[in-house]
Amino acid sequence: MTEVLIIASTAPQFGVLAESVRKFNALGARVRLAGTFAMDAEGVPEQLAPIELAELHQLPRNLKHRSQALRRRATKSPAGARTWLQAQRDSWLRSHARKADVLVALDPRSVYTVWRLAEYNRTAAAQFGLAPALRAVKALQEQGGGGEARGSVLPPLSTVTREVKRSVDQLPGQILRAATPRPVMYSGVGARLWRGAITAPGVPVKVRASTSRYVAEGMRWAGRTSGAALTLAEAAARIADPQLRSDLFDEAAMQEISKGISPRGIEKSVGARLALADRELAQGRTKQAAKALDRALHLGFHRVLHIDQLSSPLAKDAAGFVAPVYRSKAMQAASRPRGRKVPAAPAPTDRPLRLLITTSANDNFLPLIREQFGNHPGVELRFLDLSTSKHLKGISWAATRMLQDRLEDGASDYQEEVERLMRPHLDWADTVFLEWAAGPAGMLTTIDPGDTRIVMRLHSYEAFTRWPHMTDFSRVDDLMFIAPHVKDLTVSLVPMLRGEQAPRFHVIDNAMDLSGFNRPKPAEARFNLGLVGIGQVAKDPQWAVDVLERVRKHDERYRLLLVGGDMDPKTSQATREYLREFEKTLAPLEESGAVVRLGPTDDVPSKLVEIGTILSSSVREGCHVGLMEGAASGAVPVARDWPFYAGKPNSARTLYPEGWVVASPQEAAERILKATATEEAWRAEGALATEHALTVWDWPVVRKHFEELFLGKA
Which of 178, 192, 195, 236 could cysteine-pair with 248, CB 3.0–4.6 Å? Predict the structure, then answer.
C-alpha cells in the first residue's frame, strides 16, 4: 500500500480533492489529509465527509500555547514558515510523515512544511500539487513500490509545471514570498521547485517576470547568488518583449556582480540590451536607444569583470569579447568616425606653442610634464582640471548624452553645451594634451576640434572600461600609450583604431624623476622584499606573500615590506572578498614580523632605502612605476610575468630586461635567493638595475620624447 500524506494550510477545492483521492484509491494508495485550516468551520465537515480519505487530522491553527519567543519569531517569519512552526510538534503529523511514500503540498504555504518533513523522510517523493503527486504514485508502482530514496526533497521542475501554471497566476507577492523562505532555498531541489514556476510553458509574461523576481529574492536570502541569477536569466530567455527581457537579463547579471562575481551569462545580458538599443534606434527613439546602449557597455565593461578580479575575458580574447558589441546597429551608428573638417595646423614658428594640458581630477602623472613645459621658452602653457567646474565635470561624464548625440548625428543639445564650454579653450590652444582616455575623451571628441591638434594619453585602466568605445578617435591626432602591450590590447578592442582615420600611435614612458631614488642601502636591506602599491586587487599581493614564504624556508631573515594604502573595501564586493582573504593570510605573518606594513607615504625614496628586492606581483600593469622606482633605488627587480599579457607579443618580458621577469613564485624565490646570496652579489645586481632605470626611464631621457611629440624637435 502506497501511503500519501497531503498537507494543506488553506481549505482546498473540495471537488478537485475528491476526484484526486478517488484516483489515488484506484491506484491502491491510502490518502491522509492534515491541515492547519479550520476543519470544523461551517460547511467544511459536510464537504470533507464524502471524500474517501483514510484519515483527516487537524493541525494546530495557532501558537497560543507556545512560548512568547516563538510567537515573536513567527510574526517576523513568512507565512510558509509560520505554518511549519504551528505544525512541527504535532506527533501525528511526524509519525505519518515518516511512513509516507509521497508527501504533498497542496498550496504554496504548505511547501515549506513538506520540505521540512521530507528532510526527516528522504525516501519520500515530495510534491507540490495533486497532479504531480498522482504521477509520483504511478512511478512508485512501476518501480515496484520499493523504499529506495527518491533523491528529491521537493519535486523536480518537470513534475510541477501544470500545477504551477495553474496557481501562480493568482498568487500575490506576499504569498510568493511566503512560499520561498530562506530555508527552502538552501536546498538545491527546493530552489528548483520554484524555478519551475518561471519555466512553465504558457505562464503569462508579467506573472513569469514577477515570479522570477520573487524566486530570485528567496535564493538571494538563502545565499544562492548564482541560483538567483540563473532564475532571472531563465525567465528572461522565455520572454519576447525586448524591454522586459533585457531588464531581467540585466538583473540576472547584477545578482552576481553585486557579490563580486563575474557573471557567467554576461554576454546574454549585454546582448539583450544591445537588441533593445537596436530596436529603439530603428523606431527613432534615440534617447531610449542611447540609454540601452550605455547600459550594455556599462555591463560589458563593469569593473567587477575586468578590474577587480585576477582575470578578465579581455585577457583571454579581447577581440572576441567585443565582436558582438560591434555587431549592434546602434553601436555601429554611435562609433562611426565623424572625422574633422580641416587637419590640425602645424606648430607655430613665430610665437610659442599654446599648449593646454587637461585632465579630470587625476593629475598624478603630470607634475614633471607641467613643470617642463610651464618653464619652456617655446611653450605657453595652460592647465584645465575639468573636475573643478560643475558644468565641465557634468558634461565630461555624461555617457548617455554622448551616445544620444552620436545617434542623432550631432544634433543634440549635448553638442551645443560642449561647444559652448570647450570651444574657448580649443580656440586658444594650438595643441590640447588630454590625460586619460576616459569620460572627457568622449566629451571632447563630440565636437570638431577645428585646426587644434588633439593629443591623448591612454594609460592602462581605460582599456578595461567602456570609454574608449565612446571616443571618436578620428578627431584625435596622436594617441599616446605608456607601454606596447597596452597599445596592442586597446587596438584589438576598438575597431576605429584599426581604421583609416585612426590617430598616430606613440609609446612613451611615464614621466618619472628617478635620480632621487638612488640612495645608499644598509646591508640588512638585502633580506627585505618590497611591494610598492597594494591598493587594488590587480596588484595581487598574495603572490608576493607566496614568494616570501618560499624564501623564508631557506632563511627566516627575509621579510616583506608593504608600502602604500590598503585596498578600499567599498570599491566592490570582489575587492572586499580579496581583502578579507589577504588579511587572514597576513595576520600570523605580521605577528611574527615576517610582514611589515609601512602604509601610505609621500616619500617613497626613503622607504625604498630599506628594500633590497622590489617585487611586481600584479596580474596586469601598464608599466608598474613602483618596480621602476625600486630598480632605480638599487633594489633587485623581480617581476611576475603579468598573466593578462603573458605569452603575447608584448608583455612584461618585452618591457623589462631579460632576467627580471619570472613565471612563478618558485622562480621568483630562486632569483631572489641567487641575487641576494651574498652582499656583493646583491649590490652588483642592484647597480645594474639602477643603471638601466636611469638610462631608459628617467625624466631627462623621456622628456626628449615629449618635446619631440609637442614641438616636433628634441
Answer: 236
